[in-house]
Structure formats: C-alpha cells, structure tokens
Please model this.
Amino acid sequence: MDSHTKGICRLGIVPVRIEPSEKAEMVTQLIFGDHYSVNQLSDNGKWANITIESDQYNGWIDILLHKEISEEYFNHLNQIEFKISTDITSTILYKKRLIQVVMGSILPLSSQELFDVTEQFAFNGSAKNIGEKQDFEFLKQILKNYMNAPYLWGGKTPFGIDCSGLTQMSFKLCGYLLKRDAHQQYHQGSEVESISQALPGDLAFFKNENNAITHVGVVMENETILHASGYVRIDKLDEKGIYREDFSNYTHILAGIRRILKT
Model:
C-alpha cells in the first residue's frame, strides 16, 4: 500500500495510537464507518499514520486493520448524509461476516442509493440521519446509554470512554460535530458567561493548576453534570466546579461553559 491513500473503518472498533506500536498509548478510536486519509507508513510498513476526516485527529493504526477506498469513494462519503446507529450495540452483515457495531457507527445507508454497489450490507438496529439536529431531551436519552461506562483514555464507546470522547460521540448522535479533545472543544460553540446562565446540554470545561483545559462534561438539570471520571457518572456542579459528595470535595475546577445545542 502507498501512503496518501484513503481508508474506511470496516470493523466495529479500531484503536488509534500515538506511535506505530502495539504497546503505544491509544489516543482515540475509529468506529465503524469512520473514513480517513493515510499520511505515511511506518518504516517497517506495518503501521499507517492517518487523519480521521470527521475531526482531523491524527494517529497510527495497524495496517492489518486498514480498508482502502478510492478517492472518488472518499469524496462521496463527504457529500452524502448517511445514517448513524443509535443502539448501544447492533449488527451489520458485511461480505458474509457478522460485525458487532456500537452506538455512533456511521452506516452505509442513506436516503439515496446504497453508497457503493461493490459492498453488500445488512443492518439490524435503530438509526437516524447523522446531520439531523436534536434537542436536549434526545441528548439526555443518548447519555443514559453511556452511564456507568468505565473511563478509558482514548475510548469512544459505551464499553470504555474518556471525557471528551463522551461529549464528542453524544453530540455526534445529536447532529453536532465536535473536535476530539477537551481543549479543542473549548473553542467550539458560543460562550456562556456564567454558571447561572447555563442550560441543560451546555458543555462545562475544567482546568488544571496551569489553567490548561483538561476535562469536559455535559450540564444537566438541578445543578448537576454528567461526565466521565472513573466511570460515566453524575455529580454536583457549581461556580467552583465539580463537587463529589462521596469524596466530600471538589475534583475539578470550572474554567468555562460553551453552548453547542441550538436553542
């Protein structure tokens, strides 16, 4: 395979690593249907450095997990609005192989024709149009499906997820594309000036001692926040930050609030 080709994820989940090694840190994941550009190959040809199209995030995948597609096919994926799976898990029959896919997978179905007649799919599950904007009530139902998911650095699924993966995937299901990391999401949407003006569905961001954005969660009703910290949970939120009643202290210091959902 040459570098500068295009690819698509045709497995349920693919780890994306910071370096070309199985032992390297996982920084994000490809979910079924994510497409990407290949920037370069590792010296031994066993790893591909990729840029994920939806959020422009970079990392390395094992070449054995790569599925090459044409430039024409890649561009087609950018132009057509497809479906996104809304069940925690569902199945796709692809080339006589049954694949388990997770919530947030991009499905090869649209209001138009099957997007590539050379690929045959059968999907069993629930889905919506990926670009269809939804409100807080829909977001709340999506977030319930992530509750108690264990924290996993780089994770994006109900079986392991990090704080910004949680916000990215839940808002993606609501029709809004967010960047991958919390510090990137902090520059999206519009600013909410104070906690008193926050609405359910806003994103609350938190900082470390160096004022770097290190954490994000979703503002919920009754002065609470849903976030991934140890596991996906709901804690108290006020002008200082996140207060964990089981610890009897503040675990995260509030840096700011951004509004993504259209009101």
